[in-house]
Amino acid sequence: MWQVFVRWYHKCSSPKWFYQMSKPWSFWLGWAAFVLITVALIWGLAFAPVERVQGNSYRIIFIHVPSAFLSEAIYMSIAVAGAVGLVWRIKLAFYVAKACIPIGMTMAFLALATGAIWGKPTWGDWWVWDMRVTSMLILFLLYIGLWALHNAMERPESGDRAAAILALVGVVNIPIIKYSVNLVTTLHQPATLKFTEKAPMHISMLVPLLLSILGFYLAFLAWMFIRARLEILKRERKALWAQKEIEQLGGL
Amino acid sequence: MAFESFGAFLNMGEHGLYVWLAYGLAALVVLFNVLEPRYLAKQLVKDHQRKLRREQA
C-alpha cells in the first residue's frame, strides 16, 4: 500500500507527467471562468440593487473582494508550494510557486487600485494609511520581492529556494491582513463574508459576489497552469521530450 | 435592471468615473494575464530555434 502511494506520488510530481496531464485543463477552466465572471459582473453592474449608503460606488466590490481574496490565497499557495519544494526537493512545486507570482502580483495591485478608487467617494480620499490598506501594500511589495529574487539569481534553482524562504517568512502578513479590520478600528469596513455567520448582505448582491469570487479562482487556476507549463518547458529544455513540446508550440 | 436608462447606467449616480475606472483596471489586469504568457511562449520558441541554428552551424 505504502509503495503504491510512493509510486503515485513520484509520478505526480514529475514535471513531464504533469505537463502531459494538464494539457486540456486551462482551456476548460478558462472558459468556465469567462462565463462565470461575465455573468457575475453584468449582474453586479446592471441588475444588483443600489446600496443605501454608498450608492453605486459599491459595485466596485464585485472586483475588489475577489481580487483581494485571491491575492491572499495565491500568496498562501506560493508559501505552501515553496515549503513542499524545500522539504521534499520537488522541482514541480517550485515551478508552480513561480507561476503563481505574476498572477498574485496583479491581483494584489487590482485590490489596492480598486480600493483606492472606491475610497475616494466613500472615505473622501484615495489613500489612507489604515491597517488593512498598509498590510495589503506590504503583500504587494512581498510579491515584487519574490519576483525580483527570481530575476536576481544567476541559477534559477537559487531563485526558487530564496523565493520560497521569503514567501514563508511573509506568511506572517496574511493573518495581519485578515484580522486588521476586526482588531482595530479602521476606516475599512469589516469583512462582508464570513464562514461562521450569515453574510449581512442581501441575496441580490451576495450571489453575484460569490459567482465573481468563484470565477476569479477558476481564472487563476487557468492562468497558473498555462504559466506552470511554460516554466516546465523552459527549465526542462535540455530533455528531449521538452524540446519536442517546444517545437509543437512554435509549429515547427 | 437597477437603472432606468443606458445614460443612468453609464452615470452610476455620479459615481460613474469611479466604477468604470475600477472595471477598466480589472480589464487591463485580465488582458495582461492573458497576453503575457503568450509572449513568454513565443520567447521560448525563439530561444529554442536559435539554439537549433547554433548547433547546425
What distance separates the N and C termini of chain A? 44 Å
> Rg of chain A, please?
20 Å
- Helix-strand string of chain B: HH
**Number of helices, counting only DSSP H or I runs of 4 residues or more of chain A:** 10
Number of strands of chain A: 0
| Quaternary form | heterodimer
Per the principal axes of the C-alpha atoms, what is the gross shape of chain A?
globular
Main interface: chain pair and counts = A-B, 41 and 29 residues
* Average of per-residue pLDDT values of chain B: 92
Low-confidence runs of chain A: none
Order of helices and strands of chain A: HHHHHHHHHH
What is the total domain count of chain B?
1
Helical percentage of chain A: over 70%
Number of helices of chain B: 2
Major β-sheet profile of chain A: none
- Cα separation of the termini of chain B: 67 Å
Q: Mind explaining what this structure looks like?
A:
Helices cover 77% and strands 0% of the residues of chain A. Chain A has 252 residues and is mainly α. The radius of gyration of chain A is 20 Å and the shape is globular. The model of chain A has no long low-confidence stretch (mean pLDDT 92). By secondary structure, chain B is mostly helical. Chain B has one domain (12-56). Chain B contains two helices and no strands. The longest helix of chain B is centred in the middle third of the chain and has 41 residues, at 16-56. Chain B is rod-shaped, with a radius of gyration of 22 Å. The mean pLDDT of chain B is 92. Classes of the chains: A mainly alpha (252), B mainly alpha (57). At the A-B interface, α3, α4, α5, α9 and α10 of A face α2 of B.
